């Protein structure tokens, strides 16, 4: 297939054009080449252009309208000449915006030619630059230097440099003294289980249709209700608001009165369209002594609805637990154990743009040579004040240099480096679930994956998300118990019983969620190891046979934070249920 046909296919998909619009497709291709914009960026400019004209956003482009957009937006905004005239310029000059139109576009995260050149949120595969193999100091005896990953104008972090507790183990799990933290065997394979085919389809955050959103939420109620009925042998479900004097079963999604914080007196149950026409009813929890509920949770309840205005709950079923995957460990002496290191950003202290904490971590990788290193964003943190004010280079250049440096190190160590994006990554996409970070790694050991994702390394299944679901669920949970229970275990158990990496609905205002990609948020199986970083206190714990790890963040303000390392004994059989928690020794360590 020719390059022009590929380009036409992308334009046809983005602008929803038919085969007959050849003149429009040719004009789009011309604008793409002239202003160095891909199909997505052109579509963003088209939407912004329609908004400034108060036109219907679903209007199809014509050649005349595209010419108007070129004259009024692209020609005025572009600081980049046609590709044929582009010179090698590593630091393009930032253009001012006297018209103010770019401010309007930025409100909606719309890319203009100016922001495409100088802004962080650029998709596509950037050129390989910034870190050469020679500058990486490939001698294994020497240490990596933070200057290799940092902007030229960056100054070293003062407080981080003067820390006195580096390397201190603050939490141990399992028999860490018997673990072998340095393994030379490299015979490990990695496979992405979920999402199996990546994140496909367009992101339409802020443009999602309400009825589509409602259909997805209703489908979630239906699917979990059927599973609850099957497991608990419930024959039929009743309408949530029908008055009845005997005990019946109803199912639906937990929601709360919008006024004030959720509590036991504001809990509502929203039924599905099929059983209850989507109606809601308050729940009376006075007869329950133990429960843990949160908005978005799909439950089945037994009880009585005397008046049709409130449902008195007698018994509560809060989900169906996921099974652990079957695992046949390789009992040969070639790979007696697997070492995993994981850390979560921010990787910069708030007083510096020098990647000193990340460099420290990568030097530890060079020393200990783990088989797998899982790094979770943000890598280039949009909330960092220094990044917002940086003018010496573009965010793209900063990201490319960092990514290429990690790429080269993964090849050097033959260590599987896994990079997971975050909502705060300035060069990533804002809406959850997040597609992989941009770029095509050169090393087969470098993996850019989505958030969330499920991976398998030599049979061991990892579930990974950088979104702070532990903190969000902890804030939203309504809990009562006659005995003391661990909050972290309760919250993580909800992920397993609701079959989702993010079962909370609605999410907090600062968390953007694209429900058109709700299938990516599903948790298809209970992993052997779950990585769930959180701003709450670090932990490593056994939750129903799954080893759950919160490594903390690598930095905390101006000082250093923590990371985690795990040793998985590959010569011990799992339990009959499939758990390998007894095979794992783990630590949380100060950087």
Write a structural description.
- With 591 residues, the protein is an alpha/beta fold.
- The protein is 27% helix and 20% strand.
- The protein has three domains: 3-118, no CATH class; 158-203 and 323-467 and 511-590, Purple Acid Phosphatase, chain A, domain 2 (4-Layer Sandwich); 210-317, Nucleic acid-binding proteins (OB fold (Dihydrolipoamide Acetyltransferase, E2P), Beta Barrel), CATH 2.40.50.140.
- It contains 14 helices and 22 strands.
- The strands form five sheets. A seven-stranded mixed β-sheet has the order 1-22-21-9-10-11-12. It has a six-stranded mixed β-sheet with strand order 2-13-14-16-18-17, covered by helices on one side.
- Helix 1 crosses helix 2.
- It is globular, with a radius of gyration of 26 Å.
List keywords for this structure.
591 residues, Purple Acid Phosphatase, chain A, domain 2, 20% strand, OB fold (Dihydrolipoamide Acetyltransferase, E2P), 3 domains, alpha/beta
The amount of helix comes to: 25-40%
The fold-level CATH name of the largest domain is: Purple Acid Phosphatase, chain A, domain 2
Shape: globular
| CATH architecture assignment of the largest domain | 4-Layer Sandwich
Give me the Rg, rounded: 26 Å
How far apart the termini lie comes to: 50 Å
Would you identify the regions where 5 or more consecutive residues have pLDDT less than 50? 79-127, 129-139
Top-tier CATH class of the largest domain: Alpha Beta
β-strand number: 22
> Strand content of the residues, in percent?
15-25%
Integer average pLDDT: 84
Q: Biggest sheet, strands in spatial order?
A: 1-22-21-9-10-11-12
Describe the largest sheet: 7 strands, mixed
List the domain count as a whole number: 3
* SS summary, helix count: 14
């Amino acid at each position: 297939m020719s390059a022009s046909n590929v380009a036409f296919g992308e334009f046809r998909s983005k602008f929803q054009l038919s085969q007959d619009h050849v003149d429009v497709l040719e004009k789009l291709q011309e604008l793409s080449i002239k202003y160095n914009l891909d199909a997505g960026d052109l579509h963003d400019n088209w939407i912004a252009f329609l908004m400034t004209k108060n036109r219907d956003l679903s209007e199809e482009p014509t050649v005349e309208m595209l010419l108007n957009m070129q004259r009024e937006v692209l020609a005025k905004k572009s600081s980049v000449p046609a590709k044929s005239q582009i010179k090698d310029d590593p630091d393009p000059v930032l253009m001012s915006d006297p018209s103010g139109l770019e401010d309007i576009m930025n409100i909606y995260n719309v890319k203009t030619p100016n922001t495409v050149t100088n802004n962080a949120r650029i998709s596509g595969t950037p050129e390989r630059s910034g870190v050469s193999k020679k500058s990486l100091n490939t001698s294994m005896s020497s240490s990596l230097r933070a200057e290799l990953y940092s902007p030229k104008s960056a100054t070293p972090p003062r407080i981080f440099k003067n820390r006195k507790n580096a390397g201190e183990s603050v939490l141990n799990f399992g028999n860490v003294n018997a673990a072998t933290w340095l393994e030379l065997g490299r015979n490990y394979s990695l496979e992405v289980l979920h999402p199996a085919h990546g994140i496909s389809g367009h992101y339409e955050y802020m443009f999602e249709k309400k009825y589509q959103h409602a259909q997805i939420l209703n489908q979630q109620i239906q699917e979990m209700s059927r599973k609850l009925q099957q497991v608990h042998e419930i024959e039929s479900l009743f309408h949530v608001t029908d008055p009845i004097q005997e005990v019946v079963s109803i199912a639906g999604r937990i929601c709360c009165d919008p006024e004030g914080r959720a509590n036991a007196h504001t809990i509502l149950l929203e039924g599905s369209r099929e059983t209850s026409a989507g109606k809601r009813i308050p729940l009376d929890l006075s007869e329950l002594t133990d429960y843990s509920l949160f908005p978005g949770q799909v439950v089945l309840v037994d009880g009585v609805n005397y008046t049709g205005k409130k449902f008195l709950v007698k018994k509560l079923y809060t989900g169906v637990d996921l099974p652990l995957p079957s695992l046949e460990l390789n009992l040969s002496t070639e790979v007696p154990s697997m070492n995993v290191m994981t850390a979560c950003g921010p990787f910069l202290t708030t007083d510096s743009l020098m990647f000193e904490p990340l460099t420290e971590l990568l030097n530890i990788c060079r020393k200990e040579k783990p088989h797998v290193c899982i790094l979770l964003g943000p890598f280039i943190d949009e909330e960092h004040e220094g990044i917002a004010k940086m003018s010496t280079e573009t965010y793209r250049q900063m990201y490319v240099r960092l990514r290429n440096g990690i790429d080269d190190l993964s090849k050097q160590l033959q260590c599987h480096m896994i990079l997971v994006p975050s909502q705060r990554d300035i060069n990533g996409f804002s809406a959850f679930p997040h597609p992989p970070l941009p770029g095509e790694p050169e090393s087969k050991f470098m993996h850019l994956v989505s958030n969330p994702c499920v991976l398998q390394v030599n049979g061991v299944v990892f579930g990974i998300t950088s979104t702070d679901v532990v903190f969000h669920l902890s804030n939203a949970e309504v809990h009562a118990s006659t005995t003391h229970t661990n909050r972290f275990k309760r919250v993580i158990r909800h992920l397993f019983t609701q079959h989702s990496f993010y079962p909370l609905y609605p999410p907090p205002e600062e968390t953007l969620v694209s429900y058109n990609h709700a299938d990516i948020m599903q948790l298809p199986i209970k992993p052997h190891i779950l990585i769930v970083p959180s701003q709450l206190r670090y932990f490593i714990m056994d939750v129903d046979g799954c080893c759950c790890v919160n490594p903390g963040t690598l930095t905390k303000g101006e000082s250093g934070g923590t990371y985690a390392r795990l040793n998985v004994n590959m010569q011990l059989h799992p339990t009959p249920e499939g758990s390998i928690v007894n095979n794992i020794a783990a630590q949380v360590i100060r950087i």
